[in-house]
């Protein structure tokens, strides 16, 4: 992940971009990957770790009705998390993660499902990735790498 974060740093600097993260299942790992790189303060404003629904509402402005209707692990909530991260920071790009790292899950929301959103000026893209029941550490690591790849794709 170090190489992806290094490339992101260079791309974001060139674009004059500032980044924020809104993380649930990754618990700050995306922010840590970015801030592990020297000079990241030039492109990283802040990270929100919103593990509970209450934190998503209080810190990012996720709507209670969205949580009730779609659940925390949904693209709708991920989108509101990413938009909220931009709204509550000086960033112009944000990535959000919310998922089920495991163990556990359900018939409808299996272990390894992670919903992502990346937002920037005038857009917010969402997607869901099924990493499968590969173990908590691997789901979190792959989700972190995927979140960085989403930022790399959009921050230019």
UniProtKB/TrEMBL annotation:
Superkingdom of source: Bacteria
Q: Which gene encodes it?
A: cinA
Among Pfam families, the record links this protein to: CinA (PF02464)
> What are the residue boundaries of the CinA C-terminal domain, all occurrences included?
4-154
Q: Which InterPro entries match?
A: CinA-like_C, CinA_C
Q: Which Gene3D superfamilies match?
A: CinA-like
Membrane-spanning intervals of the chain:
none
The entry's protein name is: CinA-like protein
